[in-house]
Amino acid sequence: MDAQDKASVAFEKYVDAVLDLLLTGQSPGIKDRLVDRLGRDEILFFGPDEGTAGFMDWASQHARKRGAPFWKAFTTGKSQTLGGIPHDIYGMTTRSVHQYVLGIIRQLGLDESACTKFQTGGPDGDLGSNEIKISHDRTTAIVDGSGVLYDPKGIDRAEMTRLAHARQMIQHFDAAKLSPEGFRVLVDDFQVTLPDGTLVQDGLSFRNTFHLNKMAAADFFVPCGGRPEAIDINNVGELFEDDGSTRFKYVVEGANLFFTQDARLRLEKAGVHLFKDASANKGGVTSSSLEVLAALSFSDEEFGKLMCQQEDGSLPAFYQEYVADVQKAIEANAAREFDCLWA
């Protein structure tokens, strides 16, 4: 518990330990050579995830400092000055997630603009912000770190998009743009009376359990953030109405592990079309893989010229075309996998 605020130190030590194993015979302070039973050079790549995205630049440069020949590809999601393809800037993970939403809409002949959606993970995050930017539905609720935003008429899309571009939480939403039936309850609020007369005693508890609230009903549920196993076999029953119908018709998991497998099976048995995280959110992995391919394909000089942001702030034409191709690959792969799963 005393080390919870030392994430960067832990990450740096972990990276050094991995490099000690990869760079045989060059480990500081180790006199004997490491036992090598593989007999060939090994390469390992680190991709960004929650809490580590900001460390990718350091790790790449540290690998270079230690003489790793694969330093350009050691981490992905790096800054553009280092030839990286930032997942959040280009919405790489969201591009695959949203293909599953579009696949359901296409297969069932739905109108996206008429579909309602409930979203966890707000406009301040990678997935949440890009889901807002790329979608055209009628979002009725967003839950993020700051609280709950709800409007059964549909949350004002222009205001949502403004927050998504600014990467701000819903606490910055202009509440004047809510309908009379809408509300915003922040985590530090107490004794709030909702438009329907419901009294919210504690904003934090309300936020933490709102995904199980009867108001959190929509055609689509797209979790873009939240705690792992937020819905398990013990509470999945709260997503059902008294008549046995489910509060959501379609679930596309953007966030990892939001549902347990038992909860997924219970929902699918009830007729919910559910696509799990391992399929839906792999766009970021695809982007990282293709970033590694570019880094390994070029010499340092070529990489600096073709993939790195220039001193004047411009991005090379090759880089821009390559990123566009990565986006197309992500969307095409996601659409094809959706079709396979649907079949």
Widest β-sheet, arrangement of strands: 4-3-2-1-7-8-9
- Using DSSP, what is the number of strands? 9
- Rg, nearest Å: 23 Å
Structural class: alpha/beta
Number of helices: 13
Distance between the termini: 48 Å
What is the molecular shape? Answer: elongated
- Biggest sheet overview: 7 strands, mixed
Taking pLDDT < 50 over at least 5 consecutive residues as the criterion, the unreliable ranges are: none
Helix content: 40-55%
Strand content: 5-15%
Order of helices and strands: HHHHHEHEEHEEEHEEHEHHHH
Mean pLDDT, to the nearest integer, reads 94
Produce the secondary structure layout.
Elements: H1 7-22, H2 56-65, H3 71-74, H4 87-90, H5 92-108, E1 116-120, H6 126-134, E2 138-144, E3 147-150, H7 157-166, E4 183-186, E5 190-193, E6 199-202, H8 203-209, E7 218-223, E8 248-252, H9 261-269, E9 273-275, H10 277-280, H11 283-297, H12 300-306, H13 317-342
Parallel strand pairs: 1-2, 1-7, 7-8, 8-9
Antiparallel strand pairs: 2-3, 3-4, 5-6
Plain-language structure description:
It is an enzyme of class 1 (oxidoreductase). Its EC number is 1.4.1.2. Keywords: Oxidoreductase. With 343 residues, the chain is α/β, with parallel strands linked by helices. The chain is 40% helix and 12% strand. It has 13 helices and nine strands. The chain has helices spanning 7-22, 56-65, 71-74, 87-90, 92-108, 126-134, 157-166, 203-209, 261-269, 277-280, 283-297, 300-306, 317-342, and strands at residues 116-120, 138-144, 147-150, 183-186, 190-193, 199-202, 218-223, 248-252, 273-275. Strands 4-3-2-1-7-8-9 form a seven-stranded mixed beta sheet, sandwiched between helices. Strands 5-6 form a two-stranded antiparallel ribbon. Helix 5 packs across helix 6, helix 5 (92-108) runs parallel beside helix 13 (317-342) and helix 11 (283-297) runs antiparallel to helix 13 (317-342). The longest helix is centred in the C-terminal third of the chain and has 26 residues, at 317-342. The N and C termini lie far apart (48 Å).
